[in-house]
Automatic annotation (TrEMBL):
NAD(+) binds at residues 10-29, 91-94, 176-178, 202-204, 220. It catalyses: N(6)-acetyl-L-lysyl-[protein] + NAD(+) + H2O = 2''-O-acetyl-ADP-D-ribose + nicotinamide + L-lysyl-[protein]; N(6)-succinyl-L-lysyl-[protein] + NAD(+) + H2O = 2''-O-succinyl-ADP-D-ribose + nicotinamide + L-lysyl-[protein]. SUPFAM superfamilies: DHS-like NAD/FAD-binding domain (SSF52467). Its EC number is 2.3.1.286. Residues 1-234 form the Deacetylase sirtuin-type domain. It comes from Shewanella mangrovi. This is NAD-dependent protein deacylase. It comes from the Bacteria. Binds 1 zinc ion per subunit. The gene is cobB.
Length: 239
């Protein structure tokens, strides 16, 4: 039986819930240039454009068809039923994991449903889309909240906690993630180096595929329910 599990999820698990992958093949994010909507400089140049970009993403989360799928639900079951340490690290900025019932969850790239005071760093839950009236309550004068999103050139959230968990875990599972974007792409190296069993769940083999001990190819929503049952029953082995 495993004692400490770290799970990493990426865009693939959200795509199965109808959320379009944020970044497409030609480097555009939903028809915008990355430097315009996903950098601090882009936000300084045109905060309205950036706010409207994230507001559109945020509104997608309110659509009834966009809901947690069987993979999200399996991970919530794993967290609830697993007696050891558990940490779910997601690269996704949507709220599907928490809606499925996960609490031991770290959004390393931020969250669409939150804004952040640019001065104090305090985080606020958004009850309405971004706009000039969406301000912090921690400063005088109140500051306009910025999206609580990690942009290019910014450091992902919770890296110390993630590193500690990876060094201690005995099972690492990466789901729906390309394995090419650092620092997340390096998580498997850390887990392997400290003796964990590493498992990959992806639609198709990825570039760093060979680093994982076990591979599951197919939809996460079809693979994860039985994989979680295997983990919980103590029957997941390397061979
Ligand atoms: Zn403030």
């Amino acid at each position: 039986m495993y004692q400490k599990i770290v799970v990493l999820t990426g865009a693939g698990i959200s795509a199965e819930s109808g959320l379009r992958t944020f970044r497409d093949q030609n480097g555009l994010w939903e028809d915008h240039h990355i430097e315009d909507v996903a950098t601090p400089e882009g936000y300084m140049r045109n905060p309205e454009l950036v706010e409207s970009f994230y507001n559109d993403r945020w509104r997608q989360l309110q659509v009834p068809e966009v809901k947690p799928n069987a993979a999200h639900e399996a991970l919530a079951k794993l967290e609830q039923a697993f007696a050891g340490d558990f940490l779910l690290v997601t690269q996704n900025v949507d709220n599907l994991h928490e809606r499925a019932g996960n609490h031991k969850l770290l959004h390393m790239h931020g969250e669409l449903s939150k804004g952040r005071c640019p001065r104090s760093g305090q985080i606020f839950r958004l009850h309405e889309p971004f706009g000039p009236d969406n301000c912090c309550t921690c400063c005088i004068p109140a500051q306009r909240l910025r999206p609580h999103i990690v942009w290019f050139g910014e450091i992902p959230i919770g890296m110390d906690r993630i590193h500690d968990a990876l060094e201690e875990c005995d099972l690492f599972i990466a789901i729906g993630t390309s394995g090419t974007v650092y620092p997340a792409a390096g998580f498997v190296d850390i887990a392997n180096h400290h003796g964990a069993l590493s498992v990959e769940v992806n639609l198709t083999p990825k570039e760093r595929h060979s680093l994982f001990h076990l591979h599951y190819e197919g939809k996460a929503s079809e693979i994860m329910p039985s994989l979680v049952d295997k983990i919980l029953s103590g029957s997941l082995f390397t061979k």
